[in-house]
């Protein structure tokens, strides 16, 4: 689709050098930690003001005395998760917040699911999101979720497959049950990569398609595709007599990319305080320490207090703004913001030197899904300055001193506010 | 304290690929059309508020009830035509609006003039903007416009040249008369490119300079320059006895770059509803269908209504804001905005799913010409949200949710608002 013969003004090489230089520069300027940094993500926080809702967003409609108090001493702005108009999944949304260019580090869904189940992946592992299904006698998918079998059944079937299919040639096969009919398969071997097409017809009435490399030229992906076919050959017969879970589908088949560790990149000891598997998985992808055992935002903030001395950077994830945005439930999303606000004073008992509160993307109620709208961000530190905004809202953030910027730069602003970025040049 | 040794994360080559990837990513995410997209360009719309005019811009001074009503349900922002401080011509200004990086796709004035006259250029054609002039007996230019001869004279002279100079070697020569003393020459051959320096002293009292390649190293440009010299050698004697048009000047000599077609790039059937040749030419450059036969903005909007079902994307161009800005005529520019506003309800009878109203650049009255000031943009859709701005103005747009962004991304935002861009990543 690209342009044809006209030569770009800046040569490919020059452009590449320019890009590389910025990352290298940040690394070079990065100083040792001083103080604590906290990134608090209200998933899907951003929204849009529509006529139907009286021209306010859930964040604007919410009663948020604690955020309001904080906003008086904070800078605000809006962040592009990736690039104008692009709606990110949770993976790219969070990687950007962690300071990794989501285009540079693409992570397939299978990898994220595996990480979310607590599997310790290695760079090069190929992972697939899988689930049991029901096949008829001709191999046609007649129920893509196998009647949503119980988790206990799923665990038994995964144990069965695990015990019988441990290796395929030199490649190790690791299977782990998830919730309900879901599980994950990891292939640990050499010389493989994703992405592959799905072993899933995506609707009932069709057979399970054979997977193919997305990039037909990739030798590594061909090897991975061959292995998935071998796995089906070995595993499907083992389920032949099961009811209703006599088959399985595989999606999002991809390899774990080699992502630099957060601690190496920023010289910060990072901790993840999330509840949902996917976000723990995303944190693990950049080698954050996952803290466990909390079930509410209040408990998450308490955990932060307890672990305050042990880490330099805390990633605290709050799911419900996204969940209710996906439902299109304005009142519930507003209430989720209020619940968050009510718990916020716990965090502030030991206020981090740098506190960023934002979303990984917007999930507008009117869209009932992720969107491309820049998410609002609030940045608070002794050096953030005040944008003189009485509240933290999308509309206010439009006029904030941070302006509109790519989310991958947030961590650089946090570093700067922690005085962890040295001066450039004399 | 410095970091130091950290190796760059990604190799030079990989980074270059990443850059390319953003365009590729947009292509990959582009979905089939749903609904109509309209780009309405008030040429040179942006302006600056000066003390002399009571600190308002023409857009702010204008009475615009229809734009005001629209703005309540719209997002706003400001767009950099190209990069900070760069004042674009109409070519780069519009190419950016069509989503093409103006640095990547450079189009010479000769090419634009040829397209504006309805000539069907091919990639690689070299085109020159030309006009008849008066030379004295020594070949000195004594009237750069040959007394502004009538169009009919111009047409006769062009026919004369066309009949005598059809080919130069293997290269085809195509000549077309414009208005008054103006015409266009196209050289259609192989292995040529622009840009060349002008065959125009740009003032009277000097001879016509010999053209030279702008890039002295370009073999293709040398060939083109040689051809222009041959053309002068063949054509000038044919005019020897004419009065006053016994010579001609050539400017903006350039080749047509190979630009990907709009429809291929965005999966949208595009139509151009412009009045002035240059804008039709620019639309043709990306292979939009040019609709003809309208003379006023009201007629242009009527035409949009009539063609509503036949296209997915409408480019509607309004010239007068730029024209009066160039004149430095504040009152007339304000009136042009009001005329536009009065016609707007015609368009809104069949409101497009996504409507963008903006300029291709600013033409501030105080500058009497194009400028580098970011133009304001209004974006309206069911998902644009409201920035709670009561009016569409430069000052209001500064606080819009779209922020300040490069104009080439506008179409991506339009695609997103039409739900024509798929989600990226899981």
Properties at a glance:
homodimer; 426 residues; alpha/beta; Alkaline Phosphatase, subunit A; Alpha-Beta Plaits; 2 domains; eight-stranded mixed β-sheet; six-stranded antiparallel β-sheet
Structure, explained:
The structure is a homodimer. Chain A is α/β, with parallel strands linked by helices and about 425 residues long. Chain A folds into 2 domains: about 35-105 and about 260-415, Alkaline Phosphatase, subunit A (3-Layer(aba) Sandwich); about 110-255, Alpha-Beta Plaits. The first copy, chain A, contains 14 helices and 15 strands. Chain A has helices at about 10-30, 60, 65-70, 90-95, 110-115, 150-165, 220-235, 260-265, 275-285, 295-305, 320-325, 330-350, 395, 410-415; strands at about 35-40, 75-80, 85-90, 125-135, 140-145, 165-170, 170-175, 180-190, 245-255, 270-275, 290, 315-320, 355-360, 375-380, 405. In chain A, the strands form 2 sheets. Chain A has an 8-stranded mixed β-sheet, with helices on both faces. In chain A, strands 4, 5, 6, 7, 8 and 9 form a 6-stranded antiparallel β-sheet that branches. In chain A, helix 5 (about 110-115) crosses helix 9 (about 275-285) and helix 11 packs antiparallel against helix 12 (about 330-350). The longest helix of chain A is centred in the last third of the chain and has 19 residues, at about 330-350. The radius of gyration of chain A is 23 Å and the shape is globular. At the A-B interface, helix 1, strand 3 and helix 4 of A face helix 1, strand 14, helix 14 and strand 15 of B.
Give the secondary structure arrangement, pairings included.
Two copies of one chain form a homodimer.
Chain A: H1 12-29, E1 37-42, H2 58-61, H3 65-71, E2 74-80, E3 87-88, H4 90-97, H5 109-116, E4 126-135, E5 141-143, H6 151-164, E6 167-168, E7 171-177, E8 182-188, H7 219-235, E9 247-255, H8 262-266, E10 270-273, H9 277-285, E11 289-290, H10 297-307, E12 313-318, H11 320-327, H12 330-348, E13 354-358, E14 375-381, H13 394-397, E15 403-406, H14 410-417
Parallel strand pairs in A: 1-12, 1-13, 2-15, 10-11, 10-12
Antiparallel strand pairs in A: 2-14, 4-5, 4-8, 4-9, 6-7, 7-8, 13-14
Helix pairs in contact in A: 4-9, 5-9, 10-12, 11-12
